[in-house]
UniProtKB/TrEMBL annotation:
Pathway: Carbohydrate acid metabolism; D-glucarate degradation; 2,5-dioxopentanoate from D-glucarate: step 1/2. Keywords: Lyase, Magnesium, Metal-binding. Its cofactor is Mg(2+). This is glucarate dehydratase. It is an enzyme of class 4 (lyase). The active site is at K199, H326. Its EC number is 4.2.1.40. GO terms for molecular function: glucarate dehydratase activity; metal ion binding. Residues 177-271 form the Mandelate racemase/muconate lactonizing enzyme C-terminal domain. It catalyses: D-glucarate = 5-dehydro-4-deoxy-D-glucarate + H2O. It comes from the Bacteria.
Amino acid sequence: MNTALVIEDVRLTPILVSDPPLLNTQGVHQPYTPRLIVEVVTRGGTTGVGETYGDGAYLEPARSLAEALPGRAVTDLNGLFALADEVCDGSHAAADDRVDAGGLRGVRNAGKIRLSVVSAFEVACLDALGRAQGLPVHALLGGKVRDSVEYSAYLFYRWAAHPASGERDDWGAALDPAGVVAQARRFADTYGFGSFKLKGGVFEPDREIAAIRALAEAFPGRPLRLDPNGAWSVPTSLYVAEQLKDVLEYLEDPTSGTDNMAAVAAATDVPLATNMCVTTLAEIPEAFARDAVRIVLSDHHYWGGLHRTRELAGICRTFGVGLSMHSNTHLGISLAAMTHVAATVPDLAYACDSHYPWQTEDVITERHTFTGGRLTVSDAPGLGVELDRDRLAALHRRWLEDDGTHRERDDAAAMRVADPDWTTPAVPRW
Ligand SMILES: O=C([O-])C(=O)C[C@H](O)[C@@H](O)C(=O)[O-]
Ligand SMILES: [Mg+2]
């Protein structure tokens, strides 16, 4: 073994990142959201970085994995999964069957959490390996097949300010079709995005239909997507599909669960996409056999890293299912990782999601910039990003000083600040 590639130390830094008051079917984003930054340091003195969810359920297994890693090589990526199974105690999460508030990714369980933890270590190992070898991460994945990756504008209904703190940015509120179109216009003008996704499940379906219609009028012929995170019944999903069939590129998770998705898919020609009913390998056979989805939104945090994302791409290709990319609140390390893996997947036919434009804070020295709706794929060694240690320390200090309110993402709790009677809506909501 090349001893320079052996891991000597692993550093975990939980942070809180500011987040705007974006609405979804569960509630509203809190003013701060937790993330975990993983650093892997080799004996050769190279440091690689990764990023994942920072809620308590992820921190515990991350600490176990971090303790077990020194002495192993950064090339031992396939071994990470067995190691995580061995050392990460899933008991705290296994009993926890609730729908994951942070990821809106269906039911959360210990296995899914472990994969999200592994994803950050895999990315950090790839970054370290790439830096040590002078190779970009995409080269370690077999090489890029495109020089830039297209992203989609991720539109949200939103408030102008967070209710308790009053903290606001300069986007203003977007609560009706005109507000959504204005937000889309700013995204298009600033970043050049050519396709638009609206996070739905917030208002009654007719209001969201009107917003998509307004977008279609303002941006004729552009790909449009609507994603209510499973908030609708089968009949409601079919009603929306019928109303919007001439303008939607796809409808994302209109309803919850493979059964319901299959029922909707059987009765409409509008393609259905998911980042909720297919988020693990175990969920694929039934969903594909029943034609429940035409597009899977990959997410390396869900699937266990960049290699596993490529495996997912191969499975989708085999079954003629399209691939796109899901995102929730993340920073520039994960955006770099997403871009590297997206650059290596030959048949990525849809623009990827990214929350990144909503994140005003980051832990890297130079923010990514979208041009023409695209990010250039970096050819620098590793991920091609540098950690800004001062920013990391400042965001970690915020985490340390937090009284616990923001250490667990909880969109329903944030909503209760404005509406004390709010509880996470049961599905179907409409
Ligand atoms: O289905 C999706 O695209 C998501 O769940 C993305 C994010 O979680 C988004 O809904 C959010 O953060 O409110
Ligand atoms: Mg979605």
